[in-house]
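About this split. The held-out portion is used to measure sequence recovery: a designer receives only the C-alpha cells and must propose an amino acid at every position. Recovery is the fraction of positions where the proposal matches the reference. Here is one held-out target exactly as it appears in the evaluation file.
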C-alpha cells in the first residue's frame, strides 16, 4: 500500500469569478491553488478532496459557475469522485464534502445529480485498502453530533481496514473562542467512538477537517487531527471574529505501509498570490 492525496477546504466561490469577498477574489485564489497542485504534486496523488464550503451563499447559480469553471463530469454518486479539468489538471478525481455554506439540497442537485439528496452526507468509500469516512455535522455554523452520524461512524469503524475521517466541522479547539464555540457540545461522543476502536481490527490514521479556515495539527487519543487553511479569506486567531488575508494552503497526505504498520505523513504547501 502506498498512495497520496491532497486536502483543500473552504473555497467560498461566488456566482461570478469577478465577485469579490471582503476585497478578496476567491476564484482567483482557488485557481492559483489548483494550478499549484497541478504543477507540483498532481503526479504523486490519486485524488483531491475538499472538506466543504465550496460556495459562499449556496445558490444554484454559484454551483453552476463552479461546475462550468472546473468542467465537472457527473460520473459518480456523492462524494465522488467527480472528474475535473481545470488549471492543468485533466479528468482528475475530485471528492466533495458539504460545509455549512452548502445547503444539502442545492449541493446534491448541482454537484451530484445522480444521487438522491440527503439531509446529511454520511458516506464512505474505499481507496487502495483504506476506508475514507465522510461525516456530516450539519449545515449550521455550529456542529451537531446527530444520532444518525454517530451510528454511521460506529458502523464504519467496524471495518477491518485502516480508516481516515473527513469532515467539515472541527473537533478540537484551535485557540479562538468564537470559532471553538462552533464545536459540537457533545463532541465527546465522537471521540469516545474514535478512541474506543478495537485496535486489533481498526486503526484511525487521521481526522481531516475544514471550517476554521486555518492550518493546524494536533492529536487526540493518539489520533492525528488536521485542519487546512482556506483558499478564501481567513480569520485572525483571536477570541473575536476578525477577517484577514493570508496565502492559501493545501495539504499533501501520503499513506505508507511501513514496518510499524500503515501510517500517514502530511505536508502543507503555501501558495503565493
Ligand atoms: Fe468556510
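Reference sequence for scoring:
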Amino acid at each position: 500500500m502506498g498512495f497520496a492525496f491532497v486536502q483543500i477546504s473552504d473555497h467560498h466561490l461566488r456566482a461570478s469569478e469577478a465577485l469579490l469577498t471582503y476585497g478578496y477574489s476567491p476564484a482567483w485564489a482557488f485557481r492559483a491553488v489548483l494550478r499549484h497542485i497541478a504543477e507540483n504534486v498532481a503526479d504523486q496523488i490519486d485524488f483531491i478532496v475538499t472538506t466543504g464550503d465550496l460556495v459562499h451563499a449556496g445558490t444554484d447559480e454559484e454551483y453552476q459557475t463552479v461546475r462550468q469553471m472546473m468542467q465537472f463530469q457527473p460520473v459518480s454518486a456523492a462524494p465522488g469522485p467527480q472528474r475535473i479539468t481545470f488549471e492543468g489538471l485533466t479528468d482528475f478525481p475530485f471528492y466533495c464534502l458539504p460545509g455549512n455554506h452548502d445547503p444539502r439540497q442545492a449541493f446534491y442537485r448541482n454537484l451530484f445529480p445522480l444521487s438522491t439528496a440527503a439531509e446529511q452526507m454520511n458516506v464512505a468509500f474505499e481507496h487502495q485498502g483504506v476506508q475514507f469516512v465522510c461525516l456530516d455535522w450539519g449545515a449550521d455554523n455550529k456542529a451537531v453530533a446527530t444520532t444518525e452520524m454517530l451510528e454511521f461512524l460506529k458502523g464504519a469503524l467496524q471495518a477491518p481496514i485502516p480508516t481516515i475521517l473527513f469532515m467539515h466541522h472541527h473537533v478540537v479547539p484551535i485557540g479562538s473562542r468564537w470559532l471553538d464555540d462552533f464545536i459540537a457540545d457533545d463532541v465527546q461522543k465522537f471521540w469516545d467512538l474514535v478512541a474506543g476502536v478495537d485496535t486489533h481490527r481498526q486503526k484511525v490514521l487521521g481526522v481531516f477537517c475544514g471550517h476554521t479556515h486555518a492550518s493546524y495539527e494536533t492529536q487526540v487519543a493518539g489520533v492525528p487531527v488536521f485542519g487546512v487553511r482556506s483558499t478564501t479569506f481567513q480569520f485572525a486567531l483571536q477570541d473575536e471574529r476578525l477577517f484577514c488575508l493570508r496565502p492559501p494552503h493545501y495539504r499533501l497526505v501520503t499513506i505508507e505501509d511501513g514496518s510499524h504498520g500503515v501510517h500517514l505523513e502530511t505536508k502543507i504547501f503555501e501558495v503565493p498570490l
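Annotator remark: Residues 69 and 237 are 32 Å apart (CA to CA).
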